Amino acid sequence: MIFPVHLSYEFYRRNIMKKIVVFTGAGMSAESGISTFRDSGGLWDQYRIEDVATPEGWRKNPELVLEFYNQRRRQLLEVTPNEGHAGLAELEANFDVEIVTQNVDNLHERAGSSHVLHLHGELMKVRSTGSGAEVFDVESSHPDVKLGDKCPKGYQLRPHIVWFGEAVPEFEHAANLVSNADMLVIIGTSMQVYPAAGLVNYVKHGTPVWLIDPNVVSNLPAGVRLIAKGASEGVAELKTLLMKR
Ligand code: APR
User: What does the alpha-carbon distance between residue 47 and residue 86 come to, in Å, rounded to a whole number?
Assistant: First the structure.
């Protein structure tokens, strides 16, 4: 991409490139080998949400919760981004791309996307259960977090995940990105979990909204343009359509 020397890339990105917000869910990472939640055989067929993804579950059995996320973290270290993740990173050559993801994996970042907002937290981070709630990176060489692992101030560490029933601190930031988008692309989410699923209501009137998902998805506004394919094929098709314009 060539741009006039007196314009910085950041100025060009923010003021001249078209803004695409990509809102992703578990289906984005399915082709990397990470289970979705609500498809048949998905994670919520195997575990009870109340046990592993709520503050009550944590209070009742923190060891079980830590082990659930330890397993997710170990699995994440064994998988790689798919062509869909890579295709979205490549879009940055021509568009100002902001990824808003419900996924707690780091596959968008590992594929090269520069602007990734995690609505539901991050698997490779933990935070203190003390009042400061300081956040720490998990070393990939030591991915397991155990009961008794504490922050420097002496508080137990917990997964840096937004559990059901907890506030979604990044929601306002995400809504602001969506309301400034020239196009919204939704990929691989069943749109069942709020407030995240409500982000689509923040698009400006007339903004094109695309959906990439091989299955039927409800809770979508009228006029959504559908690419009924998996993430890798779907992103490739979207790129071709965008480049033709
Ligand atoms: N490519 C694209 N989409 C796919 C693929 C694929 N290869 N395979 C499945 N999907 C779609 C499914 O059709 C479904 O619409 O991915 C979606 C997965 O939906 P969910 O399992 O409900 O995942 P998600 O919407 O991300 O869940 C939202 O719920 O459990 C919580 O916090 C968790 O962030 C998660 C939130």
Answer: 31
